[in-house]
Amino acid sequence: MLYNFLINTFAGAALSGSAASATTVNSDAAANSAATASTALQETIDVLPSTEAAAETLTKISGTEVDPSALEKFMTELPDKALNFGVKVLIALVFLLICWKLSNLIVKALRKSMEKAKSDESIIHFVCKFIEVGLKFLSIVLVAASLGFNSASIVALLGSAGVAIGLAVQGTLSNLAGGVMILLVKPFKLGDYIIEDSHGHEGTVKEISLFTTKLITPDNRVIVIPNGDLSNTSLTNSTGNKVRLLQVFVGVPYSESTNKVRSVLEGAMNSSKYALKDREMLVVVNDFKDSYIEMQLRCWVKSYEFLASKWDLNERVKNALDEAGIEIPFNQVDVHMK
């Protein structure tokens, strides 16, 4: 009996405490709900006039009625939308940076493989530049598509812009086409000494780019020639072959024996270190001028030593003629008076 009494007593006390706690919790919840409702009502009272005023102002400016509720909804959703768009832009920029880094790595790997294959340097430069530009352009299109732009519209827009730009820069495009033709036909390569016939430019080919070709002259000047001009004109490649014919012309008096002169000039030519001894060397009477006999020296030299061999042979010819007492005549006129 005592056990039952104690149980009933404790159970009643517990139920009373629970009821009191429940009553207290319900009272606090009701108070909090009332405070929240009051705050929301106050915010509504504060916001609605400003929203209606903004809607009225926009209506006056645009001439079209602006719904205050739609404006309020837009302003409410604006922070979230701006945050989402900012995150998308940040991810797109990171993706673009990664794509550009990958394109650089691909171009470097391609260059190394082409260099191992011993491809021409001008072709390596052109192919690597073309692929680099193409990959970076593709990455820009992908990033624009990821931001919500229609890729088909982007391609169409770029195509239209390309047509307009192409009409405006026809000369530049002709230079690009000329650069492609030079790389395909290969009328010259890096290190060749060429002479452009239309303007007389000449020098050693230093660089062949997409639009221009750079020449280095013997006096170390840089000449930049558009590829369109080079592909549409005749040119002379002086180092297209390993050896080149050197011709030197010199005048001697009519009073001198041609056999003697030939012997002196052959000795001067044989003494030159540049003349190839396994090739034909000739000294001939080339022409009869008004005041002298024109002798011609012909020998073969290495193409890259052409200028040095010409200067050397000219000096040896002059010294040999002086030692032999043979004077190089100059133009003169004899006047006879009666």
What does this protein look like?
The protein has 338 residues and is α+β, with helices and mostly antiparallel strands. It folds into four domains: 1-66; 88-168, Helix Hairpins (Orthogonal Bundle); 179-237, SH3 type barrels (Roll), CATH 2.30.30; 243-323, Alpha-Beta Plaits, CATH 3.30.70. 61% of the residues lie in helices and 15% in strands. The chain has helices at residues 2-62, 68-116, 121-146, 151-168, 170-185, 227-231, 258-270, 306-323, and strands at residues 193-196, 202-208, 212-216, 222-226, 235-237, 243-252, 282-288, 293-302. Strands 4-3-2-1-5 form a five-stranded antiparallel β-sheet. Strand 7 and strand 8 form a beta hairpin. Helix 1 crosses helix 2 (68-116) and helix 7 (258-270) packs across helix 8. It starts with a helix and ends in a 15-residue tail after the last helix. Residues 1-31 and 40-49 have low confidence and may be disordered.
Roughly how many Å is the radius of gyration? Answer: 46 Å
| Number of domain units | 4
Q: What's the β-strand tally?
A: 8
Estimate the global geometry from the Cα principal axes: elongated
- Average pLDDT score: 77
Strand content: 15-25%
The number of distinct helices, counting runs of at least 4 residues, comes to 8
Annotated CATH architecture of the largest domain: Orthogonal Bundle
The CATH topology of the largest domain comes to Helix Hairpins
Give unreliable regions as ranges. 1-31, 40-49
Order of helices and strands: HHHHHEEEEHEEHEEH
